[in-house]
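Sanity check

After download, print the first record. It should look like this:
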Amino acid sequence: MAQELSERSELAPGVTLTTGEAGLPMIRVECGPATGSIYLHGAHVVEWVPVGSGSALWLSAVPYDGGGALIRGGVPICFPWFGNGPDGTRSPLHGFAGRLPWAIEEVRGTDDGVLVVLHLTESSATTAQWPHPFEATYQVLFGEKLRLSLQIRNTGTEAFTFEQALHSYFNVNDVAGIAIRGLEGETYTDRAPGAAASGVLSGPMHIVAETDRVFEGTTAPTYIQDTLHTVRIAKTGAASTVVWNPWSDKAEAMPDFGDDEWPWMVCVETGNVRSDAITLSPGQAHTMTTTITLD
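Expected structure tokens:
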């Protein structure tokens, strides 16, 4: 598969097409400011390592079997719904975009690193679940910064509404010791067992138990302060932030999540979910971008 793609695609210097877990094709980037990897399956970024730093993205050590679930870790794409959708009945979890093969549109070097552009449109597999024509274009810049930009265009004749998220997993030294800043004063809902159903964050956020908080109507940058580094997550075209950690009991119950992996990760996700869902008229497009930097 990788050889066939290489024959059809012009790749930038330092970029190779290789095979990842479960035999899935992967683009591997090695450029001056960073290294990184992205699967064509789900347009799933699984690695970004700025020069002089460790890996910023967390990836489970449990092998991915290609059985239809999302890859656990990195940055899965959630579209056209988040979780099980606004009414809680949609399946599969987080939509279909992260489970389908994306096509290479462009791979080129830039002054800032390497830009990978992937493309997905409707098919019989998507219309069976969500009956709307669309074009999705995903631009990923691997460089000193990791910039992820997802554009959704309505190519049909009727308006549609969708949710979306870039479900980013980050490496941390100890999740119980981090502070998440930038969400102070924001209202959240939390679906984790035993958590308050909703509240207003009064100060920096700390993870002390299973956490599944959704902040709506917030566009400010978010910071993960850790002994490893500080991660800055900025966004445009996005009004939701989701913070997630499974803690011990849920991690043990998840077959694709190592029982002892939960202390080393946290998800701080950029999206438009629930009340922040996007409606597009025919011909309209919406672009959501997150830019991740390490300090």
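If your output differs, re-run the checksum step. Summary of this record's structure: The two ends are 38 Å apart (CA to CA).
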